[in-house]
Each structure stands twice: as C-alpha cells, then as structure tokens.
TrEMBL record, chain A:
Transmembrane segments: 12-30, 124-146
PANTHER family associated with the record: SENSOR HISTIDINE KINASE TRCS (PTHR45436:SF5), SENSOR HISTIDINE KINASE YKOH (PTHR45436)
Keywords per UniProt: Kinase, Membrane, Phosphoprotein, Transferase, Transmembrane, Transmembrane helix
Enzyme class (EC, first level): transferase
E.C. number(s) listed in UniProt: 2.7.13.3
Species: Hymenobacter cyanobacteriorum
Keyword Phosphoprotein among record annotations: yes
Protein name (Swiss-Prot/TrEMBL): histidine kinase
Catalytic reaction annotation: ATP + protein L-histidine = ADP + protein N-phospho-L-histidine
Keyword Transport: no
Ranges where the Histidine kinase domain occurs: 213-423
Top-level taxon of origin: Bacteria
C-alpha cells in the first residue's frame, strides 16, 4: 500500500461517515419538516372547519360525510399515521390523519378525520438519498483518479530518488547527484541525500587511503622483523640453549602469519579498489596444471587421492595473471585444508566452469557465510580464513559466478566458478559489464 | 660455501632490512656492497663490477627499474634479483621484461634469498656448469645428479630440490616454513605442509645414511633443520 492509497483510504472512511451521518440527518430533518408541514395543513383545515361550525355555515352532517370521513361514535383524537388504499394506483399509501370533534348545530357532536397523503414526502426523501449516494460515488471515483494522477506526477521525483539510491554503489566512488524537484519536501530529501553521499564517499575515500597507507607502512617493518628473526635463529648461542630457539621460532612463525594476513588483506582491498585494471588472456588450464603439480607433495602428505580433469584446452580467460593465480591457489588450498586424511580432491576445468571438490566433514552453518572474512571452521586454525573471501572478490570483480554445493550425504564439498561464456574476441565486453 | 669472492651489490633503502640481508649474505661468504638509494647505487655500478645485484624497486630517490635499465645499457654481466613489495606485481613483470633474472616478494626468507642468489650466480658465471661440493657430496646441477663419494645417489625431484636448498644454505638453520615455501610455492600455508617436509627429510636422510653419510642434516628442535659442516 503506498502513501497516497493509505491517506485516501482515511479520507474515504471519513467521507463515508460524514455522508451516512449527513444523509441520516437530512432524512430526519426533511421528514420532520414535511410532516410538520402536512400537520400544519391539516390543523389549518381543522381551524377552517371549526370556524365554519362556529359561524354555523356548515352543511348537514350527511352532506359533510360525502367530503369528509365522519363518525358519530367517538374516535381517538389527535394526529396519527395510517395507511390507506390508493384506488388509482392500487397500493397502500401512508397518510397523516387528524381526528377532532365537531359540533354541527342541531345535530350533536361528530368526529371528523382529516387525512393527507405522505407519498410525496417519501419520494422527496428518495431523491435526496439518491443524490447523496451519487455524490459519494463520484467522490470515491474522483479520489481514485486523483490518486493515480498524483502518484504518476507528484511522486515522480521521489521514485527517481529511490531508483538512484537503489542503483547506488559506493565502490564507484561517485557521490549521488540528485536534482532539486519543485516539491519542497522532495527537494529537501534529495539535498540531504546528496550531502549524505558526499560525506560517505569522502569517508570511504579516506578509509581506503588509510588502509592502503597502513598496509604499505606495515610491510617494511614486517619484512625487517622476519629477516632479523631469521638471522637471530642463526646465532650460535641459541643452539646451546634448547629453550631459546623454539621461542624465537614461535616469534618468527607469528611474524609469518601476520605477514600472510597482511598480504591477504591488502590483496582484498586492492581488488575492491579495482587496482587490477589491465586484464590479459590467461591460460587457465596451464596455470591449473602447474598449481596442482606444485601442491602434489601436500596432497601426498595428506594421503589425498587427487585428480585433474581438463575437458577442453586451451581455456583462455581474460584476467590479471596475479589474480588468476590467487584464485586457483585459494581454491586448491581450501580444498586441502578442509579435507580429511585419505580423502579426495578433484579439479575439473571446462571452457564454462572451474570446479574444485573435496571430501570433508559436513560444516555447520549457512554456506553463504563461508565466504565471509575471518570465517573459520576451526577456531584454532592457523589460517586467517580469508581464502574464500579472496575467491569471492575475484569472481565478483570479473563477473564470474561462484556457488557452493554439498553432495554425497554431506561429505563432498564443491566450489564452482562459472567462467564467462565468451572468451577471446568477445571478452572485453564481459569485462566492461563487470565494471 | 659460496664461490669465493663473489661480489654482490645490495640496493635497499630500509636500513634495518639492508643490515639483515647483508649479514645473511656475508655469512654465506659473499662480499657485499650496500647502497641505500638510487644515486648511491648508480655510482657503484658505474665504478665497480658485481656478480649479482639485489635490487629493491621502490627507492626514495628513483626507480629500481631505471637502475636495471642502466645496468643493461652498460652490458653488465651481473645477475639481477629484484626485491619487490607484494602490491607491486606489475613492477615485477616489468623488471623481468627488462632482463632481471629472478624476483623475490617481500617479506621473504633469508634462506630463500641465498638459494636464489646462488642459482643466479651459478647460471650467470658458470653457465650452470658448476659443481657443488659439500663434505662427501658432489652435485652436478646441469645433470641434476648427486654423488656420494663417487656413488650415484638416486633422489626424487622433491628430495633433490630439498637437498639443493640445504646446500645453498650450509650451516644455516632453515625454518620449516622456509622449506615448505621453497618446495611448494609461496602461497602455501606453512602449517599445512609440515607433514610432507618431515616425510621428504626422513627419506633424504635415509638415502644418505644408506650411502654411509650420516648426521649431515640436523634437526633443530621446534625450529627447523640445518646442514651441518661437522
């Protein structure tokens, strides 16, 4: 329900109440006025008859009885409503009746009933009600029509703003440039949103710069720490003290982990900042073969059965070679890390997709969250849990599809990267689409 | 030990890192000249002849790539090993295109640096014809053969790589992490790979033992391994 419909609904509800109340009031008012009028007319005739009786101008009762309803026995006095048969229309018609005693000279009292039809009154009321209902209907139709017109015209700037907000992406580093529409409220809204997005872009920009600078500045001290610790391990005195060397080795290991984490994070931020502009044709099949061969000792150590299936060669994908390498390494390492001893690992590459599957215990939780940063299945793991985040960022950067599936009773995990359909000449179009 | 009197120019602007690298190289028997920036390095390559230049690409007063161009323009025979930050992948590619022999991404293991320098010098100076001798071992790199007291020692590819890596760092403690990265690529998480290092080392030791040489490879508890001189 949109805002206009909602307000219109309340308007219509109010109008309905007012119309019902007004119609009832009008009905009773007119009814009362008409009956009073009829009563007055009857009272006038009574006065006239009584005056004639006083002046002794009335004819005899038998003559009067032709014109009036006269009874020699007493009748209840005063105004009454009654129904009489209208002979011409052959239906019962409501009448107002006034009964009073009349003394005709020499003939004693008689009771006279004067009557007047109320049928015109009812017709009038009918017309009044019909008019009211018609106006109500017109109002309703008018409201609906106005609503449509207004929502098309008056709310157009609002819709435009909404569409701009929906399509807004901070990664494009552009503030919103919304126009100032004629309606003051919308103009204010757009102004506020423009200001908001400018602040957002500025903050994001400074955050990115900070991250990039921090990353760059951390790199050198890390390299120094690592080199000096490695030199410290060579000090002969260390070999004489069996307790000291493992301490230094732990420090060294910690430095390595830190520098790995640092590398992964700066890679992620570089992808997000689109600093890997130039793509070039990469032989994914060759790269995959090479990476698999490099990891073979690792597979052997874990007693993994592994297989590589390249259905069609060559598989050429347009991307940054460094990112292609990172994509494959992270996929393969993920498949090793979450594998079980004596398990299996399979890499399949066609022109359309790259699939890496591995055996492993079923992992609890929502698969969509596996791609989150610092997501670990095992909290004690040495890995910072950034591998799949990097995979996801690379896929998003190049517009590749990425999906996760758990099959074979929850023991086989498959990550599937869908490669762009067209390679070679059509590839630049794919790239620009991902931008 | 490194071939005698091999001269290396180390171009690195971070003093602490430069000291550590130079220290490690000197321990391996190289003669090391240090340069803290572009101008200093440029002067040195004009004046002296080096066997190998370790070149950091980001220098405060100039680009390492320009230094590389200057070296190549002079027709220098020196091998060039580029040291680069990870976020400068494209510089690395440009460096290799300009004729650098190899590259290392910061931060790296000093033992890896030794192995790379040694490989570059061997390729450059001896066209790969050099023999490596260590105690009773004789390695012929161009044939990928290892002899123990004249007897051929049959090794797998990984065992051979491991032995060469140890031989490039005689007397140095090699961390398990450095060995893992050397054998499996730098993206491998070291913790994942200790199993296989252990396996390969065990096999290598056994094969050496069968040929009658023992205690060449010492285990440094909690740290790594060392190729021992005694």
């Amino acid at each position: 329900m949109n805002l206009l419909t909602a307000t219109t609904r309340y308007y219509l509800l109010l109008a309905l109440f007012l119309f019902v109340g007004g119609s009832l009031g009008l009905y009773h008012g007119i009814n009362w006025a008409l009956r009073t009028e009829v009563g007055e007319q009857l009272a006038d005739r009574r006065r006239e008859l009584l005056a004639k009786a006083q002046a002794n101008e009335l004819p005899s009762v038998s003559q009067l009885a032709i014109l009036l309803d006269i009874s020699r026995t007493p009748r209840p006095l005063g105004f009454r409503d009654t129904v009489l048969l209208d002979r011409t229309e052959n239906e019962m018609v409501p009448h107002r009746q006034l009964t009073f005693p009349l003394v005709v000279r020499g003939e004693g009292p008689v009771w006279v009933s004067l009557r007047k039809s109320l049928v015109e009154t009812e017709d009038l009321l009918g017309v009044v009600l019909a008019v009211m209902v018609a106006v109500l209907a017109l109002l309703l139709a008018g409201m609906v029509g106005l609503n449509r017109w207004l929502s098309a015209r008056l709310w157009a700037p609002f819709r435009h703003t909404l569409a701009a907000l929906r399509g807004y992406n901070l990664q494009q580093h552009q503030p919103l440039a919304l126009p100032a529409p004629a309606v003051a409220e919308f103009a204010e809204l757009n102004q506020a949103l423009n200001g908001f997005s400018q602040r957002l872009v500025a903050d994001y920009q400074s955050l990115r710069e900070f991250t990039a600078n921090a990353a760059h500045e951390t790199q050198t001290p890390l390299a120094i720490m690592q080199a000096q610790l490695e030199q410290l391990l060579q000090v002969p005195a260390l070999a004489e003290d069996p307790a000291a060397a493992p301490l230094v080795a732990d420090l060294y290991r910690g430095t390595l982990r830190l520098s790995r984490l640092h590398q992964a994070l700066s890679l992620l931020s570089k992808i997000e900042n689109r600093q890997f502009a130039e793509a070039q044709p990469v032989r994914l099949d060759e790269l995959l073969t090479e990476r698999m061969a490099q990891l073979e000792p690792l597979f052997d150590a874990r007693e993994l059965r592994y297989g590589l299936d390249i259905a069609q060669a060559p598989v050429v994908v347009l991307m940054h070679p460094g990112l292609a390498d990172s994509l494959l390494q992270n996929l393969l390492q993920n498949a090793v890390r979450h594998n079980v001893r004596g398990g299996a690992l399979m890499a399949t590459l066609t022109r359309h997709e790259l699939k890496v599957s591995n055996t492993g215990p079923a992992t609890p939780g929502d698969p969509a969250r596996f791609f989150e940063r610092f997501r670990k299945h095992n909290a004690a793991s040495d890995s910072p849990g950034l591998g799949l985040s990097i995979v996801q960022q690379i896929c998003a950067h190049y517009g590749f599809g990425l999906s996760y599936k758990l099959t074979e009773h929850g023991t086989r995990h498959t990550l599937r990267v869908t490669l762009p359909a067209a390679v070679g000449t059509a590839a630049p179009a794919v790239l620009s689409a991902s931008d | 030990m490194a071939p005698l009197f091999m001269k290396i120019l180390l171009v690195e602007d971070e003093a602490a890192l430069r000291t550590a690298l130079a220290g490690s190289l000197r321990q391996n028997g190289y003669v090391v000249d240090e340069a803290a920036g572009f101008a200093q390095a440029h002067e040195k390559i004009e004046l002296y002849k080096y066997d190998c230049v370790l070149l950091d690409l980001t220098l405060p007063d100039g680009s390492g790539l320009d230094l590389l161009r200057a070296l190549k323009a002079e027709g220098s025979a020196a091998g060039v090993l580029i040291i680069t930050a990870r976020d400068a992948l494209d510089d690395k590619i440009a460096g290799l295109d300009l004729g650098a022999d190899d590259y290392l991404i910061k931060p790296f293991h000093l033992s890896e640096l030794n192995a790379r320098v040694r490989a570059i010098i061997r390729r450059r100076q001896f066209n790969g014809q050099q023999q490596i001798t260590f105690r009773d071992l004789l390695v012929l790199p161009e044939l990928a053969e290892v002899h123990v007291r004249g007897e051929l020692l049959v090794l797998t590819k990984k065992e051979y790589d491991l032995l060469l890596y140890l031989l490039a760092n005689p007397g140095r403690v090699l961390t398990k992490e450095a060995i893992a990265e050397h054998l499996c690529g730098d993206a491998v998480d070291a913790a994942d790979s200790f199993d296989f290092i252990y396996t390969h080392l065990k096999n290598l030791r056994k094969k050496l033992q069968e040929k009658g040489v023992e205690n060449y490879i010492r285990t440094m508890y909690g740290v790594g391994y060392k190729l021992s001189h005694e």
